[in-house]
UniProtKB/TrEMBL annotation:
Entry keyword annotation includes ATP-binding: yes
Descriptive protein name: ABC transporter ATP-binding protein
PROSITE patterns: ABC_TRANSPORTER_2
Superkingdom of the source species: Bacteria
Lineage of producing organism: Bacteria, Bacillati, Actinomycetota, Actinomycetes, Kitasatosporales
Start-end of Polar residues biased regions: 337-349
């Protein structure tokens, strides 16, 4: 779908892209990087709107340097910033964009109605956009990117400004663009957890250079760290401490420290799962102490680990789980030791 070879974009004072080589296939791909990493610059080059200083790029097999117009016929683009005219309705605006893409009037109206329905805008589509909420405006921007039935859409920060419910709805829509219509998606986001949940593949850039490009399942592969949370009891007012002592005596390797658990429960112990038998040992030890087992879960890696010195392996070594919806700019300082898979999922809702 997208290939870049040693692509660079140098402004007088800053290098926005630095010899970036990518090969992005069909499906939903996340492009992640901190502010200024070069995401928007890359999108503009891919659309043929801005020429690269060096290197080459092709979208759908078309060279961005010579085939910008042909690329834009087959590619939809949702810009990051608010760019909608306030005094026309969503219907008028999206019909206009469909006509600009070359659809005849009747087809433009029909596709507009279908697309606005698909993004969840119904009777409000006849009202002026100026009165819309941020979520509704984001939907209009998405609709105009889809209205000409592109093969690929480039979505620049589509969840910007949305509340957690709005974000989840937008992420669901993005997934369905691919599953229902077979359109491939390149989506940028600062929120790493969003990409983990939505994308098949994730590309991480930093300072215009490629940090890593892998399938999401590779980024989030399972670690050997097991998180165990238990309740306290009358006999063991500190259930976690009692369990820690028993497991250590049983020869299980525990990671230093604990994490906060669910309200009303205890703390979370992190330990090394040598094999299946570790699960049995934990279960039997918890039962033997008469404690309640709140959870026993195998930890996964998270994309955020790519941004920390030493990368993913170091995060796993320390048994540190990441806040799944951590923004890239906040990595690495605020991530260490925070959150669990469950609590961060809860934050996202
Ligand atoms: N027209 C321009 N002239 C000079 N510098 C620019 C220009 N456009 C972008 N830059 C710089 O290039 C770098 C990359 O910017 P870009 O907008 O691509 O980053 P980004 O990853 O999209 O960040 P954000 O998420 O904040 O939009 C930044 O340092 C930015 O200031």
């Amino acid at each position: 779908m997208i290939v870049t070879e040693s692509l660079s974009m140098r402004y007088p004072r800053v290098t926005a892209l630095d010899r970036l080589s990518l090969d992005i296939g069909p499906g939903v791909t996340g492009l992640v990087g901190a502010n200024g990493a070069g995401k928007s610059t890359l999108i503009k080059i891919l659309l043929g709107l801005s020429p690269a200083t060096e290197g080459r790029a092709a979208v759908l097999g078309l060279d961005v340097a010579t085939s910008g117009a042909a690329i834009r016929e087959q590619v939809g683009y949702m810009p990051e910033h608010d760019c909608l005219p306030p005094d026309v309705s969503a219907t008028e605006f999206v019909v206009h964009m469909a006509r600009m893409s070359g659809l005849p009037p009747a087809a433009a109206r029909e596709r507009t109605a279908d697309t606005l329905r698909h993004v969840g805008l119904y009777e409000e589509r006849y009202r002026p956009i100026g009165g819309y909420s941020t979520g509704m405006k984001q939907r209009v921007k998405l609709a105009q990117a889809l209205v000409h039935d592109p093969r690929l859409v480039l979505l620049d920060e589509p969840t910007n400004g949305l509340d957690p419910v709005g974000r989840d709805e937008m992420l669901g829509l993005i997934r369905r663009i691919h599953t229902d219509f077979g359109i491939s998606v390149l989506v940028t986001s600062h929120l790493l957890g969003e990409l983990e949940r939505t994308c098949d593949h994730v590309v991480v850039i930093d300072g215009g250079s490629l940090l890593r490009s892998s399938s999401t399942s590779d980024f989030t592969r399972i670690t050997t760290t097991l998180a165990v949370e238990v309740t306290d009891s009358d006999e063991h007012p500190d259930g976690t401490a009692a369990l820690r002592d028993k497991l250590t005596a049983a020869g299980i390797t525990l990671h230093a420290g604990t994490e906060e658990g669910l309200p009303g429960a205890g703390h979370v112990l992190l330990l090394e799962a040598a094999g299946e038998e570790t699960y049995d040992t934990v279960r039997d030890t918890v039962a033997g102490l008469g404690l309640g087992l709140v959870r026993m879960e195998q930890r996964r890696h998270h994309i955020a680990e790519v941004f920390r010195p030493g990368g993913a392996d170091r995060g796993a070594e320390r048994g540190v789980d990441q806040a799944a919806d951590q923004a890239v700019g906040q990595v690495p300082d605020q991530v260490a030791g925070q959150g669990t898979d469950q609590s961060t999922e809860a934050q996202a809702r």
